[in-house]
Structure formats: structure tokens, C-alpha cells
Specification:
The complex is a heterodimer of chains A (about 70) and B (about 375).
Chain A: E1 12-17, E2 20-25, E3 31-34, H1 36-55
Chain B: H1 3-14, E1 19-23, H2 47-60, E2 64-68, H3 78-87, E3 91-96, H4 103-111, E4 116-120, H5 126-133, H6 138-151, E5 156-161, H7 170-180, E6 183-187, H8 204-211, H9 214-217, H10 220-223, H11 232-236, E7 246-249, E8 254-256, E9 266-267, H12 273-279, H13 281-287, H14 310-315, H15 324-334, H16 339-346, H17 366-377
Parallel strand pairs in B: 1-2, 1-7, 2-3, 3-4, 4-5, 5-6
Antiparallel strand pairs in B: 7-8, 8-9
The chains are: A alpha+beta (about 70), B alpha/beta (about 375).
Chain lengths: ~70, ~375
């Protein structure tokens, strides 16, 4: 299995509305929407990212573990 | 209809709170003369409480999260809150005076990919700006903060609250914003949590100048055009997004329809956010009001184009009543007096209206509007006008 995979950008905001994902770019405020198929792919990709982060020892943010360091 | 409008309509149809403003603190390093807040800490939500709230907001479908204050950087844990919010994929906007933004903070906001940072600038002249914030050196520090943000590529919006003291500096602030690479926006509304601040606000002549400045409003003829005819569709519309797709939460967990609409609707420390959002009597009452239910405004020619704020109307005593500041804006913009202005001129004291002294023929006459207002507001009419 290839170690490469598509990762969602950290430079976006996203939220599901009525089954469709709204995505806004923080770089230029462009707004996108994904249809249900795109939304499903997006969700799966988010899951994969969490697994990857957990595997690399950087747990997902929690109240105790996310002290911000500039 | 733009994509944003389409999403807004979809959120409205499904009762989704698309936007929330959360004031992280009321503490502030400035003491602006027009500010209505009590800057003491009376028990702000903790980091854990706010993060738990953010979980609930994400679950509820909130997309736009505005973090404001007070001055947000007065909270030691502010970056923890922003980081947690971004991990939940909120579109985060921040309102600040930028006084406390140094290299570390600017870089941190860039790394967290906040959508934009809105900074209040009152004048390009320190003697005017600092006299409003009552903090010496505040303009210099705020401008330095903006420069750092821009250096790191953070989008900045300069917000210019206009009042009598700084009206003639508007062009200077706009030029300053341009030089800083920031966007520029004006706000001529004075919030009257403490009514004494209203005396600082602009009058109709000053508003007329603002609304006829093409640099601010674009096409003046279009912006100042007389109101179009009112139809049934207009009367079916809701006054604004407050309580429909947006709400406001204070540092103490109190939930209101909007930051400008201080109708207590619940507290997120005692109830789940969604329980308040769905079941609050106050929010449901706000949602039940269409333009048709506004006793005075439904008969006003401006009803379809007015910026009427139900929160300011609530502060005037009745959320279904007119918002006089917006009546003045509509008048200043178009030269056409609002129904409320007609009414005030004809009947300065509504409760003293005499039914024998008015005509009922024209449903849009001040007298008919006044009677409709009185009957819907429960005002007893038993004395003649003097």
C-alpha cells in the first residue's frame, strides 16, 4: 500500500450542512461545497488523518494536551 | 443567489445555528468612551467549559465562530481556545484592538489559519484615537499589531466605528487601512447598553454625508434610492438572522439572540447548547416574528430595505417595535421619513392617543399604524392627544 494519501489542508474551515460539506479557504475566503459523495470522501479522509496523527504519537487535540506554543 | 446566501437559506430552513459570536472575556485594556461593558471578571467560563461548548457548537453545525470581547488577548488561554476551535474546523474570526499582538501572537494566528482579524481603529490621529480608547499609545500599538499580522499574511479588517468625535477622520482611517493592506469597514451604530453612549452617535446630517460618500457605499444613487413598493413576500421575511441562524454567548455562558439583542435565552453552563437553541421560549418567540408582525414597521415603506435591528428595538422597549437608529438611517439614506418618524411627529406619547382625534381611513396613516401598534403592544388608549 502506498504511504502517500490525500490529506485535507489545515488552511480550511469545514462543516457539514444538511449532508453536504461547506469548506472555506482561510487563504482567500473562497467558499466551496461538496456533494454527498465528496462529503463522504472528505469524512473518510479526516478519519485517516486522525489515525495517522495518533499513530505518530501526536494525539488529537484534547483539553489537556493542546497547550498552544507559537 | 450567491453560494453563501444559498447556505444561509438552507441553514434557516433547517434551524441550524450557522454563526455564533462568543465573547471570551469582558476584561479589556482599553476603556472606550462608547463601550457599554462591565470590564470586571464576574466568573468567566474556564478553558474546559469553553472547549466543551465548542464541541457542542460544532455538533450543532456552527460554521462561523467569532471570538470577541472585551479584549480577547486578556485571556491567558486564548490561543488554547483558538487552537481547539480550529481543530474542530470552525471558520474562526477574531475581534481585537491588536494592542497586545506582538510577533509571537501574529505568527500564532497565522499558524492557526484564522479567517480574519478585525481591529477597531477610530482615527488615524493618536490624539483622537487614544482619546476614545482612553489608553495612551493605543493607536501606535494597534497599528504595529496590524502590521505584524499583515507581515505574516493574516487578513485584517479595520473596523471604524463612527461617532461625532471621529467622523471627520473617516477618510484618514480608510487611507491608513489601505496603507496597511487591510480591508476597511464602518459602523455608524451606537449600541445603547448604557444609553448615555447614544449622545456620541451620528445625527441625520452626518449620516447623510456618510451615505452619499461613494467611497463608502459604492453606487450612491442605488444605495440612496427610494424604497421599492412593499409586497407580501417582504412581509413574510424575518427581520434578521438573530436567533434564526445566529446567536451570541457571553463570557459567563449566557446565550442571547445576538450581541446587539440582550434578551436572555438560557445559559450554557446549566443547559446544553442545543436544548437552548431548540427549546428556549425567548428564541422561539424571536423566530415567530415576521415583518408582518411588526406593528409600526409593517406599515412603513422602508420595511423591505431597512436595516432594522430587533435588538435595538428590544433595547427601546419592544422587540416588535421600531429601531429608531435604523429609522434615522433609512431617512438619511433616502430622504423618506419612516412610519415611526411620522408617528412620533404626530403622537409623541402613544399611550395618550385619543381615538376620537384620528382618522381610520388609510391603513398606512400614522393614526392607523399607531392603533395597530397600541393593540398589539397592549397599550390602553383612553385619553385624547394634547
Amino acid at each position: 500500500m502506498s504511504p502517500l494519501y490525500i490529506a485535507r489542508s489545515t488552511a480550511v474551515a469545514a462543516r457539514s450542512l444538511d449532508g453536504e460539506m461547506m469548506i472555506m479557504s482561510a487563504r482567500d475566503s473562497t467558499l466551496f461545497t461538496l456533494n454527498p459523495v465528496g462529503t463522504a470522501i472528505w469524512r473518510r479522509q479526516m478519519e485517516k488523518r486522525r489515525v495517522q496523527r495518533s499513530w505518530s504519537g501526536r494525539s488529537a487535540p484534547s483539553l489537556k494536551s493542546t497547550r498552544w506554543r507559537p | 443567489m450567491s453560494l453563501m446566501q444559498e447556505l444561509g437559506q438552507r441553514a434557516l430552513d433547517r434551524g441550524v445555528p450557522l454563526s455564533v459570536q462568543l465573547d471570551a472575556t469582558y476584561r479589556c485594556n482599553e476603556r472606550c468612551i462608547h463601550c457599554y461593558l462591565d470590564h470586571d471578571d464576574h466568573g468567566e467560563m474556564t478553558t474546559a467549559e469553553i472547549c466543551s461548548l465548542l464541541d457542542q457548537l460544532a455538533e450543532a453545525g456552527v460554521f462561523f465562530l467569532t471570538l470577541s470581547g472585551g479584549e480577547v488577548f486578556m485571556r491567558q488561554d486564548f490561543f488554547d481556545i483558538v487552537e481547539y476551535a480550529r481543530s474542530l474546523m470552525f471558520c474562526v474570526k477574531i475581534k481585537t484592538n491588536a494592542f497586545m499582538i506582538r510577533e509571537k501572537e501574529a505568527r500564532g494566528l497565522r499558524n492557526l489559519m484564522v479567517q480574519d482579524v478585525q481591529v477597531s481603529i477610530y482615527s488615524h490621529r493618536p490624539e483622537v484615537h487614544d482619546a476614545i480608547t482612553l489608553l495612551p499609545g493605543s493607536l501606535k500599538r494597534s497599528v504595529a499589531g496590524i502590521r505584524l499580522l499583515r507581515t505574516h499574511g493574516v487578513k485584517v479588517v479595520v473596523a471604524n466605528v463612527l461617532m461625532m468625535r471621529n467622523l471627520r477622520d473617516q477618510a484618514g482611517v480608510k487611507e491608513l487601512a489601505k496603507e496597511l493592506g487591510a480591508e476597511y469597514t464602518i459602523d455608524p451604530t451606537m449600541m445603547d447598553g448604557d444609553r448615555s453612549v447614544l449622545r456620541l452617535g451620528l445625527g441625520v446630517p452626518q449620516l447623510q454625508d456618510v451615505f452619499r460618500n461613494s467611497d463608502l457605499v459604492g453606487d450612491v444613487d442605488e444605495f440612496c434610492a427610494p424604497p421599492p413598493a412593499v409586497n407580501d413576500d417582504v412581509l413574510q421575511e424575518f427581520p434578521c438572522s438573530a436567533g434564526h441562524t445566529a446567536c451570541y454567548i457571553s463570557p459567563y455562558g449566557d446565550l442571547f439572540p445576538c450581541v446587539q439583542f440582550p434578551l436572555p435565552s438560557g445559559n450554557v453552563r446549566r443547559q446544553k447548547f442545543m436544548d437552548i437553541w431548540r427549546h428556549s421560549d425567548q428564541l422561539n418567540e424571536v423566530r415567530s416574528i415576521t415583518a408582518r408582525d411588526l406593528p409600526v414597521c409593517s406599515g412603513c415603506s422602508h420595511v423591505g430595505t431597512c436595516t432594522r435591528c430587533p435588538g435595538l428595538a428590544y433595547l427601546e422597549g419592544n422587540m416588535r417595535g421600531p429601531s429608531p437608529q435604523d429609522c434615522e438611517k433609512s431617512f438619511a439614506r433616502t430622504g423618506v421619513p419612516s412610519a415611526n418618524m411620522h408617528l412620533k411627529r404626530a403622537y409623541p406619547t402613544l399611550s395618550w392617543l385619543g381615538s376620537d382625534s384620528v382618522s381610520f381611513g388609510d391603513p398606512l396613516s400614522p393614526a392607523s399604524i399607531c392603533l395597530r401598534y397600541a393593540s398589539l403592544s397592549g397599550i390602553w388608549i383612553d385619553r385624547p392627544v394634547r
